[in-house]
C-alpha cells in the first residue's frame, strides 16, 4: 500500500508539472492610434521613446509592417477578425449587423476565438473604432456593440470628458470637441498624465492587469491608447523633451502628380489652426511635428507603466506582448497631414512582439508583413488552435529567425487598392489608373513608373487579385 500511495503521489506531481508546462500564455495587446514608426528603435533618433524601445530590444521589431487600410475602422477590422474587410470606419458595425441577422454567417473575431478557448477577454480604451466598442450618439449605447460576443468586459473610462465620443478628441481638463474649427489642432498643458484621456485609459489598463493576473484562467487584454490621434494634446513635459531638438527635414514635401490617392488633409485642416497652413508655413509645420512627437512620448510613458505593472503582477513571463500601430500618419510628406492615402506614410506602422519564442531578441525583422498576420501568430504563440478563416501568415518563423523573408502586404481605400512587395508598391484605382513605385530607386514614391514597366504591373495585379480573393 505505501508503494501504491507513493506511485500516486509521483503521478500527481508529474501531472501537475505537465499541466504547468502546457499552461496557455496570456496576451497583452497594446494598440496605438495614428502611430507611424516615429520611434527611436525604428530609426527616428530624435524621438524619446525609451519604453517602446525597450520592448524592441527584448522582442522582435518588424520594421516593415503594413496595415491593411489607412484608417482606424477598417484597419482594426483586419486586426480583430483576421480577414480583409470593408474600407470604411463602420466596418465592424456592419459585421455586427450581419451577426444579428445570422450568427452562423460570420466567423468569430480574434477575442471571441480566444474567449471560446478559455480566455478571459477584456478591452480598455480604443480597440475597435469607437473607444469602448459601443455605438449611439455618444458611443456609449450598450445595445449597439461593435463586436458582439468578443469581450467579457469592454471598458472606456471617460472621466471629465463625459463619454467615449468626448474622450476620443478630448483635450486637457475635459475639453470636448464640439466644433472642430474652435478646437485647437495641438496643445500642451501643464499637469499629470490624467489631464488627457490616455491617462485614464492607462490607469484602467493597469487595474485590469492586476486583477487578471490573480485568476487561474489565461487572459487576453487589449489596451488601446488614443494619442497621437488628432488633436495632438499631451502634458507639457513631453513637449519640453523636444525643445532645442533639430527635426530632420520633411522628405518629399511636394504634392504628387496624377494619378494618386493624395487628398487635402481634411481631418487635420478642419481644426483650429489660427489661420496657418503647415504646407506654406515652415514654423507652423515644425510646431505640428513637435506636438506629434510629444504625443508619441506621452504614449510611450503609458506603455512603460503597463509593462511595469505586468512585471509586478508576476504574469510577464507567461504573457505574449504585442505593440501595434493601427496605421501610419503623414507629417507633410506629399503635402499630406494625416492618413487616408495609399502612400507608404499612411500604411507603414510599428509592430513589436515579445514572447519566449523570439530568438536573437533585439534583432529586427526587415521582411514585409501585414496586420492580417497577427491573429494566426498569436494562436501559434499561445497554443490556441489556428482557425482556417484567419487568412494571414504566422510570423513565428520570423520570431525564430529575423532573416526569414517576408511576403506581400495588401491595403485598400474606397477608390483604390495597393500591394507592397519587398521592392515595389503598386496601386490600382477603380477608374483604371495605375501607380507603380520602385523603392530600390532614389525617387521611391515620387516617380510613377507604371507606364514603363507593364510586366511588373501585370505580376503585381495578379498578386493583388489573388490575395484579395481570399
From TrEMBL:
Its cofactor is Ca(2+). Residues 25-384 form the Sulfatase N-terminal domain. SUPFAM superfamilies: Alkaline phosphatase-like. It comes from the Bacteria. It holds the Pfam family Sulfatase. GO terms for molecular function: iduronate-2-sulfatase activity; metal ion binding. GO terms for cellular component: cytoplasm. Residues 1-22 form the signal peptide. Keywords: Calcium, Hydrolase, Metal-binding, Signal. PANTHER family: IDURONATE 2-SULFATASE. Belongs to the sulfatase family. This is Iduronate-2-sulfatase. It comes from Coraliomargarita sinensis.
Amino acid at each position: 500500500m505505501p508503494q501504491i500511495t507513493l506511485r500516486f503521489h509521483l503521478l500527481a506531481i508529474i501531472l501537475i508539472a505537465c499541466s504547468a508546462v502546457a499552461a496557455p500564455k496570456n496576451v497583452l495587446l497594446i494598440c496605438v492610434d495614428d502611430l507611424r514608426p516615429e520611434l527611436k528603435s525604428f530609426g527616428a533618433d530624435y524621438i524619446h521613446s525609451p519604453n517602446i524601445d525597450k520592448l524592441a530590444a527584448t522582442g522582435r521589431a518588424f520594421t516593415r509592417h503594413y496595415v491593411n487600410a489607412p484608417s482606424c475602422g477598417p484597419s482594426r477590422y483586419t486586426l480583430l477578425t483576421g480577414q480583409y474587410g470593408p474600407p470604411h470606419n463602420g466596418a465592424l458595425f456592419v459585421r455586427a449587423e450581419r451577426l444579428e441577422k445570422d450568427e452562423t454567417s460570420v466567423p468569430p473575431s480574434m477575442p471571441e476565438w480566444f474567449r471560446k478557448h478559455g480566455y478571459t477577454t477584456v478591452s480598455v480604451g480604443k480597440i475597435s473604432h469607437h473607444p469602448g466598442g459601443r455605438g449611439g450618439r455618444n458611443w456609449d449605447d450598450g445595445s449597439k456593440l461593435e463586436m458582439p460576443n468578443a469581450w467579457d468586459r469592454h471598458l472606456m473610462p471617460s472621466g471629465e470628458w463625459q463619454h467615449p465620443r468626448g474622450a476620443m478628441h478630448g483635450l486637457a481638463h475635459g475639453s470636448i470637441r464640439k466644433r472642430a474649427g474652435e478646437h485647437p489642432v495641438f496643445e500642451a498643458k501643464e499637469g499629470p498624465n490624467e489631464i488627457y484621456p490616455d491617462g485614464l485609459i492607462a490607469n484602467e489598463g493597469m487595474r485590469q492587469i492586476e486583477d487578471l493576473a490573480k485568476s487561474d484562467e489565461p487572459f487576453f487584454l487589449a489596451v488601446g491608447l488614443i494619442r497621437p490621434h488628432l488633436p495632438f494634446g499631451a502634458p507639457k513635459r513631453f513637449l519640453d523633451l523636444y525643445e532645442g531638438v533639430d527635426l530632420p527635414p520633411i522628405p518629399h514635401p511636394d504634392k504628387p502628380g496624377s494619378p494618386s490617392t493624395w487628398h487635402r488633409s481634411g481631418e487635420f485642416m478642419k481644426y483650429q489652426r489660427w489661420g496657418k497652413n503647415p504646407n506654406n508655413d515652415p514654423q507652423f509645420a515644425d510646431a505640428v511635428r513637435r506636438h506629434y512627437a510629444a504625443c508619441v512620448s506621452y504614449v510611450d510613458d503609458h506603455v512603460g507603466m503597463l509593462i511595469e505593472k505586468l512585471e509586478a503582477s508576476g504574469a510577464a513571463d507567461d504573457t505574449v506582448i504585442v505593440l501595434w500601430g493601427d496605421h501610419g500618419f503623414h507629417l507633410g510628406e506629399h503635402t499630406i497631414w494625416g492618413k487616408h492615402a495609399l502612400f507608404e506614410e499612411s500604411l507603414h506602422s510599428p509592430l513589436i512582439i515579445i514572447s519566449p519564442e523570439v530568438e536573437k531578441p533585439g534583432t529586427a525583422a526587415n521582411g514585409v508583413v501585414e496586420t492580417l498576420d497577427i491573429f494566426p501568430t498569436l494562436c501559434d504563440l499561445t497554443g490556441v488552435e489556428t482557425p482556417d478563416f484567419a487568412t494571414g501568415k504566422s510570423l513565428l518563423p520570423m520570431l525564430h529567425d529575423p532573416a526569414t523573408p517576408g511576403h506581400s502586404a495588401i491595403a485598400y481605400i474606397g477608390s483604390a487598392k495597393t500591394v507592397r512587395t519587398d521592392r515595389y508598391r503598386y496601386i490600382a484605382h477603380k477608374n483604371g489608373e495605375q501607380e507603380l513605385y520602385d523603392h530600390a530607386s532614389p525617387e521611391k514614391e515620387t516617380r510613377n513608373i507604371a507606364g514603363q514597366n507593364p510586366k511588373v504591373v501585370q505580376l503585381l495585379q495578379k498578386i493583388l487579385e489573388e490575395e484579395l480573393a481570399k
